[in-house]
Write a structure and sequence with these properties.
The chain has 171 residues and is mainly alpha-helical. It contains 9 helices and no strands. It starts with a helix and ends with a helix.
């Protein structure tokens, strides 16, 4: 005998269970539909919030060690999903953390961060951070940055270079 009687019995029992489920009452069908909808919504919620959760997790590591560039790597991979966290880092007390954040924001080429970068370029107390923000504004290349860059170019060579970069992007 190729199949033992125990295997055949298990197979029949499994088939019976499947048939009972398939022929189950309306109540069990409603439960199944509700369960499937719930699982689908749960999966959708993870897909939508998953990158944001990973960005927040990276932020926890950055708060513990803001000088370790490896802590910023997940944010680079997340792209625009990391933007809220990167903007939050712009107010971090450590200048290097702000610089890292600005570099990642510049890579995104996202015009939605211009106001934050303009604020840093105009008001940050650290010259290196200001210069990084100016470079980022030039790299993003949005005309909204022109008035600020013109004002900053009076006493900042980096702003002159970034302003020139802005001019070439419009061509």
């Amino acid at each position: 005998a190729f199949l033992s009687s125990k295997t055949l019995q298990d197979h029949r029992s499994h088939n019976r269970t499947v048939m009972e489920i398939a022929q189950g009452s309306e109540r069990s069908t409603v439960k199944k539909v509700v369960l499937l909808l719930f699982l689908g919504l749960l999966a959708l919620a993870f897909v939508v919030t998953g990158p944001r959760l990973r960005a927040e997790y990276a932020y926890l590591h950055i708060r513990q060690d803001p000088l370790d560039y490896e802590n910023y790597r997940p944010l680079r991979k997340l792209g625009n999903a990391a933007t809220p966290v990167l903007i939050r880092i712009l107010s971090h007390p450590e200048p290097l953390a702000r610089q890292y954040s600005i570099q990642l924001l510049a890579r995104q080429q996202n015009a939605d961060v211009l106001d934050s970068l303009i604020e840093v370029a105009e008001h940050d107390e650290n010259k290196l951070v200001k210069d990084e923000a100016i470079d980022a504004l030039g790299a993003i290349g949005d005309d909204k940055a022109l008035p600020v860059m013109s004002k900053l170019s009076v006493n900042n060579g980096r702003a002159v270079e970034a302003l020139a970069q802005l001019g070439t992007k419009g061509e």
